[in-house]
Design brief:
Flavocytochrome B2, Chain A, domain 1
Length: about 130
C-alpha cells in the first residue's frame, strides 16, 4: 500500500515539475493581429516606407549614418540609432563607433549574444527594420 502511495505521489510531483518547466520555457508564439507579422512589406523603391508601427530601412540608409554625430547600425535585421549610446557604452566609445554605418550583427552577437541586459538596452534604440 505504501509503495502505491509513493508511486502515485511521485507521478504527481513529476507532472507538476514538467508543467512548471513547460510554462517557464521561452518559446516563440505568433500573436494574432500582430501588425508587424500581418503587414506585407511595401516593395517600392523608396528607401524608407512605413508599416503600421515600424519604418523599413536599407543598408544604404544605414551607411549614411556612419559618424559620431549620427550613428546607426543594423543588427540581426533591425536598425538602431545608437548615437546617444556612444558615450555611455561600458566598453568604451570605440566599441560603438566601430558599428556606425555598418551591419553590426556579428560584433554584437560575438560580444553580447544571449545576454539579456545588452539585448534590452539595444532594443531601446530601435528605429526600424532592415529591408
Amino acid at each position: 500500500m505504501k509503495i502505491k502511495i509513493f508511486i502515485g505521489l511521485s507521478a504527481v510531483v513529476i507532472f507538476i515539475i514538467g508543467a512548471v518547466v513547460i510554462i517557464n520555457k521561452k518559446t516563440y508564439t505568433p500573436i494574432e493581429n500582430n501588425p508587424i507579422q500581418n503587414t506585407p512589406v511595401n516593395n517600392t523603391n523608396t528607401s524608407t516606407t512605413k508599416t503600421n508601427t515600424e519604418k523599413i530601412y536599407t543598408m544604404v540608409d544605414v551607411q549614411k549614418h556612419n559618424s559620431q554625430s549620427s550613428c546607426w547600425t543594423a543588427i540581426n535585421g533591425a536598425v538602431y540609432d545608437v548615437t546617444s549610446w556612444i558615450s555611455q557604452h561600458p566598453g568604451g566609445a570605440g566599441a560603438i563607433l566601430s558599428l556606425c554605418g555598418k551591419d553590426g550583427s556579428s560584433a554584437f552577437n560575438d560580444q553580447h549574444g544571449g545576454q539579456r541586459r545588452p539585448e534590452q538596452e539595444l532594443a531601446s534604440f530601435k528605429i526600424g527594420v532592415l529591408k
